[in-house]
Amino acid sequence: MSVTSLGMDRRDFLERAAALGAVGWIAPVAFVGRVGAPDVVFRGALVVDGTGAEGREADVAVTGGRITAVGRIPEVGSEEVDVRGLVLAPGFIDIHSHADLNLLVEPRAESRIRQGVTLEVVGQDGSSILWSPGAARSRAERFRNQHGVEIDFADLGGFLDYLDRNPVAVNVASMVGHGTIRGFVVGSGDRPATERELDQMRALVRNALAQGAVGLSSGLEYTPGGFAPREELVALAAELQGTGYPYSSHMRNEDDALLSAVEEVLHVGRMAGVPVQVSHLKAQGRRNYWKAEVALAMIEAARADGIDVHFDRYPYVAYATGLSNLFPAWSRDGGSAALLRRLDDPQEARRIETFARGKVALLGSWDSVQITSTGETTAWARGRRMGELAEERGLDPYALALELMRANGGSVGMIGFGMSEENTERFLAHPLGMVCSDGGAYAPYGPLGQGSPHPRGYGTFPRLLGHYVRERRALSLESAVHKVTGMPAGKLRLSDRGVVREGAVADLVAFDPDTVSDRATFQSPHQYPQGIVHVMVNGGITIRDGEQTGSLYGRSVRGTGYRG
Q: What is the dihedral of CA 266, 267, 273, 277, to 10 degrees?
């Protein structure tokens, strides 16, 4: 396998690097202002530093949670870690994560840290933490009764404070969700905000930025965010001016109306004067595959026109969402209860059915829909394809979908198989693209081991490095690492993360480039990856020789809220 742009194998590269180092290619780094031995020294790694530069053999010293030297290090660390034959990279940054409150249930973040993820960027798709007093009490009671977790916060700042008092295995940053704010102020109805409500929403965005939010996210295929007109999105995104943080959008459409949706998100960034992050870019449905190239051209043109725009994508051809997303947005006006009432109205039910069957036809068939999560009474549906399950139960698939929706109060999770492998590789390799999981935090035991989630929650980053770098050669190792380290760190203005250099935060991952791979599948998702050997978070080793140490070194990562 090639680990460099020159195409030489790893052993040849390491031998050459060692020889070059002996004649000065890798200069020793001076230890300025340090006293005593380093806390940890990683010895003999192929350092892929997160900048996109070619890997080089080096030692890396860590003291006090920071990288203190990179190069030939003569001093012996209090702990020596032999990483010869491994790649040492910055810890992976998941620019689009849905770990959120699951981290409170399982602080060890099993499915995340074992992938090499050291920073989760949550608050995505328009959803972040902001609860009314009644909703906060209800959620606190549920978490106390179900998980023994005491929730004492109701907003984003309180959530980050909680993580500082109750550490988890990974670092956590959060965007503020437009949909959450709209629901808090306007409600779940399909109507424009009044001027007073718009002012309230602006104030809530400013408050979240002051509390440490690192951007504004929207989820325009979901309610109530999808009821917002462009003008509202521009007004709220404009509150990011001077912070450098992006407006991140799950666009209004990702299939037949993809190109107009791309135009809208670029328009919001242009009119608000802020950076843009297009969430999980895709061209869904065979008849839309050709639009991938056009969407990328639109993004490239906007970049050339001065918009600081990037996108992200997960390394799978299937997405995950709620089964309710098969139904039209107008039918979800007012929430799940209103949707279920409309399904009981014969006239509205016919319109809803026509839309839902068309949505499934876009994917190919009902076997392109897999159920991921339900309540206990319908646990028999978890992990099953809808077409196959309907045939087994002697039902029309649409009728089965309605049965599941009604039995679960409208809350059913699904996976949709709708993208092409060719476009997936194109998105992953594109120079403006980052790589995200768009997934949650799980464990193969306890409450987070229930259901049949998308395997991206366990396998995204090892899959990128194994399947797409080593096997498919869709992109180089250095480029792949940059897309999950230095590039997202730069987008979020995190100058001391996402890179292996002196002075940076010591979030590090050591992996075997010859074996790293995902093991989670759509049929059996609760499986850890392989080839992730060591993971360090804020200077503390959390994964050692592939196993959890149980140490919790993560903390909140807050934006500065700077307004220039």
A: -20
